[in-house]
Amino acid sequence: MSQTKKGLTLLLSLFTFYTATVGQSTDRKLLAPTPPMGWMSWNFFGENINEKGLKEMADAMVASGMAQAGYKYIFIDDGWQGGRDNRNKIIPDPKKFPSGIKALADYMHSKGLKLGIYSDAAPLTCAGYTASLNFEEEDAKTFASWGVDYLKYDYCGAPADSNTAKLRYKKMADALSHSGRDIALGICEWGDRQPWNWAANAGGSIWRMAGDLRDKWQSKPGEQGMSIMQAVKINGDLSAYAGPGHWNDPDMLVIGLYGVNGPAADLGGIGCSDIEYQSQMSLWSVMAAPLIASNDLRSMNEQTKAILTNTEVIAINQDALGKQGVRKVSDATWDIFVKPLANGNVAVAILNKESDVRDIKLSFTGIGLNGKYSIRDLWKHKVIDTGSGWKGRVEGHETKLFILSGSK
Ligand code: GLA
């Protein structure tokens, strides 16, 4: 690339970054300039969470190299609540959290991590615990006083219409923004009210755009429960709505769960192969999705750890330009995503949806990229070719993830 072209690309990147960040919302702070990364308790612990288990996960996040690779949050999901005290202040279950949430947040912060918590825009949460409707101000202040950094706000038990959802989410976002602490809001109404159209304005940093992801690659005919492939199908059409501070969330990474008993195992969640888990990592990265692991970090095998901590892949996800990859090809066999990066390079993900190995002869012109590129394979960690296209084999359910650089 010539110097002038490089300069122009950089200017364009800065401009896009500016308009995406400053232009999107009026008075709210940008609390998730890149997609949030962390670990969430739901898929592994379900309701059986406690401070000991969460601290162990935090320790493992640090010891495994995940924290170093960019994972920051320990997100407490449903099941932590112990009702309200006689002044209506929300309290944790004293058996599960004998030291209280503040002590847990302090623990996370002392390790350079952040703490997320969970509530719901109705009287009770999805699993039937105390929630925040009509206590938004009080609960936001309580979360702030504990040192919480993020709130996942669910929508079970709330009315179906969009207007109520917008109002309830904005009410909590406003409460958080004057709670005295930066607390990012994750909107979780499962995509039912097309949150990509309103969630950022309501104050959400991320929004789930579909139902709960199960630990499975594909659903059997007639089977309920979102699979990785269904989530990709839906989210692949939503790239225009994502940007710095506001991201589509196709739900947690199921990498390394291998069908373990728990919420991700029902409705056909029988587990995936390592190739499929690696594909999830590639696809979530190219789609600029939050990277939220949900496996047992304390006993990961080497393969799981390598998938979760591939820093070249994570860099695609966390790229400062904040573009969700655009799906340029979607046919019966292939999905191909293209994600422009801040430095002018381009990430390309090539997914083989078939269950057997396939050969592909891809001309880059066909996906809007003209010129010759050097092709770096982010799973092989090396440059594999140079040219105006790529010819090669992709295993069944595998996703190749490349960086193309140096267009001439
Ligand atoms: C809903 C959410 C899940 C999880 C559970 C907890 O189903 O979509 O992600 O938070 O509630 O009860």
How would you sum up this structure, described in words?
With 408 residues, the protein is of the alpha/beta class. The chain folds into two domains: 26-317, Aldolase class I (TIM Barrel); 326-405, Golgi alpha-mannosidase II (Immunoglobulin-like, Sandwich). Helix content is 28%, strand content 22%. The chain has helices at residues 3-22, 42-45, 51-63, 66-69, 100-110, 136-146, 162-177, 228-235, 274-286, 302-308, 311-317; strands at 37-40, 73-75, 81-84, 90-92, 114-120, 150-154, 184-188, 206-208, 247-249, 291-293, 326-330, 334-340, 346-352, 358-363, 373-377, 382-387, 389-394, 399-405. The strands form four sheets. The protein has an eight-stranded parallel β-sheet with strand order 9-8-7-6-5-2-1-10. A six-stranded antiparallel β-sheet has the order 11-12-13-18-15-16, covered by helices on one side. A hairpin with a 3-residue loop joins strand 11 (326-330) and strand 12 (334-340). It is globular, with a radius of gyration of 21 Å. It starts with a helix and ends with a strand. 47% of the residues are buried. Residues 14-26 have low confidence and may be disordered. Bound molecules: alpha-D-galactopyranose. Residues 42, 77-78, 125-127, 154, 188, 190, 212 line the site of alpha-D-galactopyranose.
CATH topology of the largest domain: TIM Barrel
Helix content: 25-40%
Shape: globular
DSSP E strands, number: 18
Strand numbers in spatial order across the main sheet: 9-8-7-6-5-2-1-10
Helix run count: 11
Strand content: 15-25%
Radius of gyration (CA) equals 21 Å
CATH homologous superfamily title of the largest domain: Aldolase class I
Strand-and-helix sequence, N→C?
HEHHHEEEHEHEHEEHEHEHHEEEEEEEE
Poorly predicted regions are 14-26
CATH class category label of the largest domain: Alpha Beta
Structural class: alpha/beta
Instruction: Name every ligand kind in the structure.
Output: alpha-D-galactopyranose
State the separation between the terminal residues, measured CA to CA.
Answer: 6 Å
The average pLDDT is: 94
Please outline the major beta sheet: 8 strands, parallel
Task: Give the name of the CATH architecture of the largest domain.
Answer: Alpha-Beta Barrel
Number of domains: 2
